[in-house]
Automatic annotation (TrEMBL):
GO terms for biological process: protein transport. The lineage of its organism: Eukaryota, Metazoa, Spiralia, Lophotrochozoa, Mollusca. This is Arrestin C-terminal-like domain-containing protein. Residues 168-298 form the Arrestin C-terminal-like domain. InterPro entries: Arrestin-like_C, Arrestin-like_N, Arrestin_C-like, Arrestin_domain-protein, Ig_E-set. It comes from Potamilus streckersoni. Transmembrane segments: none annotated. Belongs to the arrestin family. It holds the Pfam family Arrestin_C.
Amino acid sequence: MRADIIYGNGRGVYVPGQTVDGHVKVSVTDSTKIEEINLQWLGHAIVSWSEGTGDDSTSYSDKETYFDTKMLLLEKKPYQHKNLKLLPGVYMYPFGFQLPLDIPNSYRGFSGFVNYEVTVTVVRPWAFNVSKRVPFTVISHLDLNTLPYANTIGIAEDEKTVKRCFGSSGPIRATITTDRLGYVPGEDIVFTAEIHNRSDTDLRPCQAALSMNVCYHAYSRITKGSYILCKLMGPEIPRGRSCLWEKQRLAIPPLPPSFLHGCKLIDIEYYISITVKPYEHSSSLFVPLMIVIGTIPLKTATNIIPQLEFSEVQHVKSDLSTLYPFYRFKSLIPT
């Protein structure tokens, strides 16, 4: 005996409030007695991490459940004393489950996840049950047109004094500007960076990067992770010189929307940044600008690339899944 779940839309990608429909396919090779066939719908978030090492290690975790519902597809009647019997063949059982409206986007990261799945179980008397669990993806829309600041120009700037072994070398200053603050996956972030090197030290090639900052909450504890999604290397800047890095582009890969609305345990923010580092021993100048990544683009935005759904995009990286998103980024933001 074998049980499978077939989604009606063929993709297993849905939005909050939508009905997840399809069929359970049960293939029977030999006559089999059963008690029932049921579906278990589960949507939940879990965070978990450890701090310290060895005997000093402490673990933190928390969870929240969005739905946990059992649905019977086939069961014997109350007046029936004998179990149901399935003869050899293929049986199809339709199902439909409406998702709640306020659930968060699917997500999976290092220290937590938001997961949605359905499990079919064929309950058999005096034998092992037959089960099959199949995940599905929820895309929770974030409409950039509802955020007044999404269509405003973004700007961030900072400066620092380059330190040397015997005193200061002079200041370096960096500014990054964008045409707006709201974007969707598939678009390019168009930015301009202006860097002034007033020190007597040459600067390494500057770097522009799109990064994701994730904060996981477990009761009163938090842990954070910052990951570079894509980057672009710019020119070196000699001592006493300035550089205008104009109308550069960073492409936005498939990503969950900012904030992860509806989830109290995981928060997501995105930044575009400029990093400038002297050749001599000195810390970097890091200038971040927070942007918002949504799922519905601005109506006034130009050169819009059609919005990508998880089920339609190609794998940007080998560890991105269109059905069960797992965002893994190995490059850490410089400090």
